[in-house]
Amino acid sequence: MGASVIAYWPGITEAQLESQPSFYNDSKGWGDWMAERENEPRALEAVRKLKAEAILTFTTDGVEGEDVQWVTPQELRDAAQKLRVAVSAGLPEAEIILGIYERAANCE
C-alpha cells in the first residue's frame, strides 16, 4: 500500500500545494514510522529532546482541522534540520529514531 505525504496547512494555495516536493506513493516507511512511534515513548522523548516536535504533526482523512497541531513550513524545516544534525553527529536520540524507522521501513 502506498501513501502520499505532502506539506499542508490552513490557507495553502493551489500553487503552493503543487510546487512542493513530496513523497508520492513511496512513503510507506515514513507512514509506518509515524504509526510505530505512537507505541514507542522513547522515540517521542528523543524527538522532544532534539526539539524537533514539528515532525510529529500530521493530518489524514477523517482528522478535523481543529484536532491538528499545525506548524509552519519553517518550523517543519527547522525540525528536519535538527534531525539531520543529530543523525550526522550520531547522537543517541537519532539512533532511537532511526532504529524504529528501520524496524518499520521493511528494507525500503
What would you say this structure looks like, in words?
Helices cover 51% and strands 4% of the residues. By secondary structure, it is mainly alpha-helical. The chain has one domain. Strands 1-2 form a two-stranded antiparallel sheet. The two termini are 13 Å apart.
Order of strands, main sheet, comes to: 1-2
H and E string: EHEHHHH
User: What share of residues is helical?
Assistant: 40-55%
| Total E-strand runs | 2
Average predicted local confidence, pLDDT: 80
Strand content: under 5%
Number of DSSP helical runs? 5
| Rg from Cα | 14 Å
Total tally of structural domains: 1
SS content category: mainly alpha
**Anisotropy-based shape:** globular
What does the largest sheet look like?
2 strands, antiparallel
The residue ranges in which pLDDT falls below 50 over 5 or more consecutive positions are none
Cα separation of the termini: 13 Å
List the helices and strands and how they pair.
Layout: E1 4-5, H1 14-19, E2 23-24, H2 28-36, H3 41-49, H4 73-89, H5 92-105
Antiparallel strand pairs: 1-2
Helix pairs in contact: 2-5, 3-5
Task: Supply the key terms.
single chain; 108 residues; mainly alpha; two-stranded antiparallel ribbon; 51% helix
Summarize the structure.
The protein is mainly alpha-helical.
